[in-house]
Amino acid sequence: MKWAFVGASTIAAQFMIRAVRAQAGNDVTWLVSGNADHAATYAAEHGIARATTDLAEALADPDVAAAYISSTNEKHFDQAMAAIAAGKHVLCEKPLAMTIEQATSMVRAAETAGVTFATNHHLRCSGSHRAIKGLIDAGRIGRVLSLRIHHAVHLPANLQGWRITSAKAGGGVIPDITVHDADVARFLLGEDPQTVVAQMTSSGMGQGVEDSAMSVWTMPSGAMVMSHESFTHPFAGSGLEVHGTEGSIFARGVMTQNPVGKITLVTAAGTEAVSYPAHDLYQQGVAEFLAATRGDGRPAATGWDGVKSLTVALAVREAATTGARIDVNYGENK
Asked: How many Å apart are CA 6 and CA 243, to the nearest integer?
C-alpha cells in the first residue's frame, strides 16, 4: 500500500514513517504540507518521492491507497473528508477534530464510502497496556474500584509551538493528552466515562491555552478514574494504577511513545513483576490498521473510539471552564 502523509509533523518523522515502511510492501510516497519549502526539505530528509502543498494532487494519485493525517487539529476535518471522498483509507491523529460533530461526520462518511477510518491512539497498542488489560480481564485484581492515570510530563521544546500558543489550532493539554487518557481508560476498563469534574490552569508554558489539568470521572460500573495531564512537569514521570477488590496494578513509565516501563501486580499472594512484549507501538497500530483494510479484524482504535475520546476531553474542558459536574453526552455515538 502506498501512503500520502498529510502534515510534515514531528510524530510522522520520529515514528510513523518508520512504522509504515516496516510493513511489507508499504511506503510513504507523498508528503503534503502547507509550506512548500518545508515540504520539500522534509520529503528529501525522509526519502519521500513527492512533496506538495496541494492535497488534491496527492489524493489524485491512483497508487495512493491510504492517508495518514498529522496536521494541526483544526485541519483534520477538511483533510480527512477530502481523503475519504477520494476513496482512501484514513489513519488520523487524535483528536480527530475540533468538535464532536466534525469527528462524527468523518467517521460516518468513511462508513458510507466503504473505507477504513482509524484513530492513532498509540497507547492501547503498547504491550504494557495490553498486559494490564489482560490482568483486569482475567480477574487478577477482582472488581475494579479505581484507575489513576498520571500523564503529567514536560513538552519537548521542538513541540512547543501551536500546542501551547494557539487555541484556534486546537492547542492545550486537554486535546493533546487528556484525549489519550480518555482512550486508555475506555480501553482498560471496557466502559465509557459518565460524568466528569475538572480543573485546568496555565502553569508556566501555556499562552492562551491550558497546560495542566486534573479531572475525576465516574464509570458505569461504579469505578472512579482520576486523570492528571500537564506539559510542565519535567521530573514527574508517568504511569497508571488500577486498584481492585483483590489486588492492585502499578505501572510506571508506561504513558509514552516507546515500549518501556515497569508493571507490578500486588495481591494477597505478594508482589509479582509482570512481563510484556516490547514491540513498537506505532508499527503495531499500522499493522492492525492494514489488516482492517483487508477485512481482517478492526483497527486498534476505530474512528468511533476517537469520537468518544474527544467527547470525554471536551467534557473535561467544559467542566474545568464552568466549575460544574458535566454529564458526558455521547449522543447517538454510544
From this structure: 41
Q: Determine the pLDDT at residue 333.
A: 66
Pairing relationship of beta strands 195-201 and 64-69 according to DSSP bridges:
unpaired
Q: How would you classify the pairing of strands 262-267 and 270-274?
A: antiparallel
CA distance 122 to 40: 28
Identify the H or E element spanning 17: helix 17-21
Quote the pLDDT of residue 161: 80
Q: Is 65 helix (H, G, I), strand (E, B) or coil?
A: strand
The conformational region for residue 123 under phi > 0 = left, psi -120 to 50 = alpha, else beta, is: alpha
DSSP 219-254: -TTS-EEEEEEESB-TT---EEEEEESSEEEEEES-
The ranges of the chain with pLDDT < 50 are none
Q: What is the pTM of this model?
A: 0.95
- In this structure, what DSSP letter does residue 127 have? H
DSSP letters for 171-213 = -SHIIIIIHHHHHHHHHHHSS---EEEEEEE--SS-SSS-SEE
Q: What percent of the chain has pLDDT over 90?
A: 91
In sequence order, the 6+-apart residues with CB closer than 8 A to the CB of 264 are 249, 250, 251, 271, 272, 273, 274
* N-term to C-term CA, the chain: 32
pLDDT at residue 157, rounded to an integer: 79
What's residue 223's pLDDT? Answer: 98
- pLDDT at residue 193, as a whole number: 98
Residue at 330: amino acid letter: Y
Cα atoms found within 13 Å of the Cα of residue 254, Cβ hemisphere only: 30
